[in-house]
Design goal:
Cofactor: [2Fe-2S] cluster
Low-confidence stretches: none
Strand content: over 45%
InterPro entries: Rieske_2Fe-2S, Rieske_2Fe-2S_sf
Strand order of the largest sheet: 2-3-4-9
Number of domains: 1
Number of helices: 0
CATH superfamily: Rieske [2Fe-2S] iron-sulphur domain
Keywords: 2Fe-2S, Iron, Iron-sulfur, Metal-binding
GO molecular function, one term: metal ion binding
Radius of gyration: 13 Å
CATH topology: Rieske Iron-sulfur Protein
Protein name: Rieske (2Fe-2S) protein
Mean pLDDT: 92
Structural class: mainly beta
Length: 107
């Protein structure tokens, strides 16, 4: 069953920066891009590297470990480079909402 969970104050998330929150056993990376907030699991499906250490290029978050790229809007892999060893290298994404200056994530 999904529920909305308070994540962070909107003022605490700067444009194109990554903040990680914990909810239960999940670490979720929050990214503000063009005044919209995206949320994705803070774990690359390749070897579990934290995506918070990656770099954001437009809407692609590149994993710092092996440079795999993921679309922050969909979680889809956009560039696996030379390491293609899993069938569906996708990152779980979560719906977000901003209400009264608070960012919440649907978990």
């Amino acid at each position: 069953m999904s529920e909305w969970v308070f994540a962070i104050k909107e003022d605490d998330l700067k444009e194109e920066k990554i903040k990680v929150i914990k909810s239960g056993n999940k670490q979720i990376a929050l990214i503000k891009k063009d005044n919209k907030v995206y949320a994705l699991l803070n774990e690359c499906p390749h070897e579990g590297c934290p995506l918070k250490n990656g770099t954001l290029e437009d809407y692609t978050l590149k994993c710092a470990c092996h440079n795999w790229g993921f679309d922050i809007r969909t979680g889809e892999n956009v560039d696996t480079g030379e390491y293609i060893d899993i069938d569906d290298p996708k990152v779980e994404v979560f719906e977000t909402q901003i209400e009264d200056g608070n960012i919440s994530v649907l978990i």
